[in-house]
Amino acid sequence: MTANAHPFDDPTIVRRSKKKMRSDRCSTCRGTRMLCGKARCPIMARVYANMRTAPLMETLSLAGSSPPSVCVGRFGYPKVDIGPMIPPRFGDTHLLDTPEEWVGQPIDSIIAMRQQLVRGRHSVRADEPEAPARLLQDTRELAMGGPPTRIDATFKKRPSGRIELNSGTQPMGPSAPIESFEMETVKADRRIERAYDDTDLLARDGIMDLYQGGVYVSRIQRALSAGLLGEGKRRRLVPTRWSITAVDSTVGETMMERTKVAPTIDEYRIYETVQLDNRWIIMMMPTEWCYELVEAWYPNTLWNPSQRSISIISSHELYQGRKTYAEIGGCYYAARLASNELLTREGRQAGVVILREAHPGYILPVGVWNVREHVREALRREPAKYDSLQGALGHVERMMDIPLKRWIGVSGVLRDRLYQRRLEDYT
After folding, report:
1. pTM, rounded to two decimals
2. pLDDT of residue 233
3. Cα–Cα–Cα angle for 184, 189, 192, nearest 5°?
4. Does residue 68 sit in helix, strand or coil?
5. What pLDDT digit, counting tens, does each position of 63-119 carry?
6. Distance CA 351, CA 371 (A)
7. Domain membership of residue 160 as a residue range
8. Is residue 53 part of a domain?
9. What is the CB neighbour count within 10 angstroms for residue 115?
10. 3 state SS of 412
């Protein structure tokens, strides 16, 4: 080792070859960007081929208590499918569409809950949310709901039994074109109703008013998706997948405005949790704001079809922020929101690096909520505290299966902290 080399500057750090980068496309794409050039994701095609596809119902009618829940599709935008989501049972069904309360649930329970929700589909234009269509108006009214609402629906054909899976949204049950539906009087969430009635309120301000008013992030996402927020004439339906990232990004960015001017924390912190066979470490450093999410997908996990190698991808930002969409996708903004929640509560600033190991037990995608809620869960716990970066990295090395040198090799923030000379180094 030369005199100027850093103790962690190990030439054996694993560097990705072109072949390895090609295998990493799956963990970057996650079935949404078609980076492989195929018309359909071959991984999800194999998953669906092994799932039940028989009709779920014997009749065209379904009655049950919607959590309440609605879905707006993204394919064919600006012409999209929108409709209610209805389980074949009555009573308190709110848990079926409240991911904030799913922490600790095993993956099979989450899939089982979501498979109960039958999606009714009605095609509309996203840029005409004030159209008089009865199905559209009733669906948007349902999106304002608080407690579960009884719905009696009639479909044009029997719903397919296949559950819809992707990395952005929570799993969704079978679907079919909807003929009509009747619902009991919706008991609106007054906070969402006020935002809807204020046609001069910008969407960003509406999102923050609801968040600061204690509305669950998942409920705000539903309201944005249904076109309930924003200035009256500019309101649009937003595909559910897009609304999730839009709300996570908006809330996180707004909190960052306060985070960036707050005093820094006084120590290095390590928060951790293990959920759904995902191992999480959140490292906070006594530095100006910077942030990174690094995800490692083990062989035979959903987004790493490799039989041998671990796929690691990362996205980061320094104090100035980033101008492009994160390579990791919506997970990046969900984890950033959770991190800034803690810093905002404490009135502090920190550098944040989140490390995720997705082990083979994570067999199906359950949505971005998995990242947001499990980072929140880790940050509710008492952290381990260290006086130095080396001490904190030693904790990482003890707790994670992947060698520390590989985490450092792919991390923009950690390499910046380890190798970049700073003014204090010369004082």
Report:
1. 0.85
2. 87
3. 125
4. coil
5. 999 999 999 988 889 999 999 999 999 999 999 999 999 999 988 888 888 888 999
6. 18
7. 61-185
8. no
9. 21
10. helix
